[in-house]
Queue: 2 jobs
Job 1
Amino acid sequence: MRLLSAAILLLPGALALPGTNLRRLETPLNASSADVLYTPPPGVVVEPDLDMTKPPQTPGAKLTKIRHGPYKITPNSMLPMQMKNNLEKPCTDCYILAMQGGLEYEDGTVANIDSGAWLHHMTMSNAMRKDIVCDGWWARPQRFYSAGNEREVSRLNPGSLKFGLKIGYWDSFAMLVELMNQSDRNITVFVTQTYETLPTREAEAQGYKPADSIWMDITGCGISETEAREGRYELYSPIWNSTVDGTLIFSTGHLHDGGESTTLYVNRVPVCTNTQLYGRRRAYVEKSTGRTHISDTGVCKDFAKIKKGDQLVLGVVYDTNKYPLEKSMHGHGFEPLMGISRIYIG
Ligand SMILES: [Cu+2]
């Protein structure tokens, strides 16, 4: 059952959820983000949250938060995987410059571990574009954003780079979410996706070019989950022979508790390491036990150029002596592991 739900995770289908609605809000994305407990270690860069209460980072751009739900979750349970198609898009004839997932209660306050709510996974895909890594007969839609509970920002125009995901009329977004309630009460939550966008007609959009997304996964084009085990070890993705030339614009890594870092290798040379940070924000510290969970991922920006035929491999490090695994919600064993890096190329 677990494997079945995982298999569905990255395969958007037709299970549209009736009774849900979409609404736009203009409230802060992540009120707890200011509640930072330590600065990242040297060499680890964390991308700032998209903050609806401040002007967007890019001149001429706009911030839009789209809310999906409500999702009602009973005490101490995982909500079965939820798929939604034909989502409201933040704009058309525009570039998405940055985006960030979130989870909140009905009143707009952040829903997180300190109140028992987990955005266990969310994956956004565009049905009108093909994933460039998994592009054979099994081709998948382009997975252009995903998050675990760390809710990392993705940015496509870091520094002086001018890239974005170009969105037109026919593009069609879908979202898969897996939510968890570790509290002993019923909760009602909404999944949010905040976008920084720039219309292509704006003068500020001059010089911008479309980017694509590369999904590197230790299960290749598999179900993204693998069995958990204890100790310190490294896991590798299959080799992806690049089919494109371009600049690697930005990357983040997704691991589960126990994970230390993800490293991207190009022709066996490491070009980027994304380090997982535990409990950097107060909302990621369990109130009863003080246990910390992954709250942030170090990012890489403008970090390499690749050519067609280059060999890309993702390596991930788990060290459960340092960071304990997440116990299974089913009462025995541990939650499966993941090892994913999302990279943007332009
Ligand atoms: Cu995961």
Job 2
Amino acid sequence: MVFTYVAFLLLLFGTYNVHGLIKPKHDKVVVCYVASWAAYRPGNGAFSLENLRPGHCTHLIYAFAGINASNWTIKSLDPWADMEKNGIGNYRKMTALRKQGLKVSLGIGGWNEGSINYSMMASSSDRRKTFIASTVEFLRTYEFDGLDLDWEFPGSRGGALYDKQNFVSLVKELRDTFRGHRFLLTAAISANKDTIDIGYDIPKISKYLDYIHVMAYDYHGAWNKQVLPNSPLRSKDRLSVEDTITYLLQQGAPAEKLVLGLAMYGRTFVLTTVPETPKINPIGLPSLDTGFKGPYTSEDGFMGFNEICEALVLYPQEWTTGWDNYSSTAYAIKKDHVVVYDDRKAIMIKVEYVRRQKLAGVMIWSIDTDDFRGKCSLLHGDMALLDGLDYPLMKSINTILANNTIPSEEKKEPNSSSVQLLSSIVFALSVTIIYFPLYANLS
Ligand SMILES: *[C@@H]1O[C@H](CO)[C@@H](O)[C@H](O)[C@H]1NC(C)=O
Ligand SMILES: *[C@@H]1O[C@H](CO)[C@@H](O)[C@H](O)[C@H]1NC(C)=O
Ligand SMILES: *[C@@H]1O[C@H](CO)[C@@H](O)[C@H](O)[C@H]1NC(C)=O
Ligand SMILES: *[C@@H]1O[C@H](CO)[C@@H](O)[C@H](O)[C@H]1NC(C)=O
Ligand SMILES: *[C@@H]1O[C@H](CO)[C@@H](O)[C@H](O)[C@H]1NC(C)=O
Ligand SMILES: *[C@@H]1O[C@H](CO)[C@@H](O)[C@H](O)[C@H]1NC(C)=O
């Protein structure tokens, strides 16, 4: 009778996945930025939080909040979308996903925020204090897990000489204050060696940050007036993922805090002359200083992966695709138009690199330009078994990460399902010990 009772308890608690959490099948972080303005894109490009698949990410970052340079507080850049009292309430819609086991942080800054107001805020102890206090209040109000600093970049783009030291002070003081609130503190940093040298004291900020999100893209673009990869794994000019990660490790960034950024977009180029045949590798060809736009993101020189793959599916006779082996990136050519981008293969090779280097995981810029509607399934037919044809890039990332994450000889801790089983048994036994006398009396 005792055994049936214990078996019953095991049945009840043993198969119970604590609070219905979505557990990724690997031990790496997958940090997904959500560009809040993606909601305003036209047609199939419009991305709202309902399109998010929480199981693909371990961390979400809401991009972006801003700095109010009148009183040095954090501020919403789009109160109508962010806050429910004005409109949609996306902050709380996103932080509600914490119930599913995700960590949800608020990103502050980004390219459009620039560097000047960040620089002025960080330059004074009083302003930092005001900023940090307002941030704590803000994160608590909307129930975020933490803050992601997206200062692009300390010491550059109008920033000041002492930004590098002031950034350390900002990060240290945020850490000191956040400790009591158990908030996460992360930062997105440039992948460019010169920008790193100007802006970041790597050993010091590594100490205070939980994770460093390496923006390992935008190495090249139309501004180079030459077709070059947005995010090359290797490069002879030393502007590449491997060069950046090697440099950061040399500077003293711990591998277990480095998170490699993956670009779910490509950079576009217009060649100075139409090539005689589209069956050429365009890398290195001269181009104009502007590219072209995609139909949803409408930003010159930029195309989301969803826009690229839809173009390839809709107009296969117009586009010729190819692979640049040295940089491990894909390209597509249509007359004088070229887009260089990361396809599934390029992304998977980078994720394998992350595993080999034992980095903390990957960061996604940004989840709203994966093929989140599954419009390009013709290109990804081999994914038919993977629970629908949407999110080909996110699924590829998680597949590689879940592939036998830790070789068994290196494993030190028991895996989560055995921990869960063990704790269920302990729980069942203690319930039995407490209630068995009562149960025996009743029967
Ligand atoms: C910086 O702050 C000033 C003063 O509030 C504001 O006018 C300006 O737009 C801010 N800069 C950016 C890039 O938001
Ligand atoms: C910025 O701060 C000033 C001064 O307190 C305030 O008047 C203004 O409304 C704030 N702006 C935003 C967008 O919160
Ligand atoms: C800054 O301005 C905002 C918006 O008006 C206000 O809510 C906040 O109280 C002000 N903070 C400080 C420290 O003055
Ligand atoms: C592709 O690049 C790698 C790394 O540089 C090299 O080892 C390999 O031989 C190349 N393969 C081809 C087919 O060129
Ligand atoms: C899993 O990893 C092994 C060894 O690295 C590799 O041989 C295999 O192809 C991988 N499987 C998948 C599905 O990627
Ligand atoms: C985890 O442990 C369970 C029970 O010991 C075992 O069945 C399962 O294969 C393990 N999973 C991994 C990924 O090692």
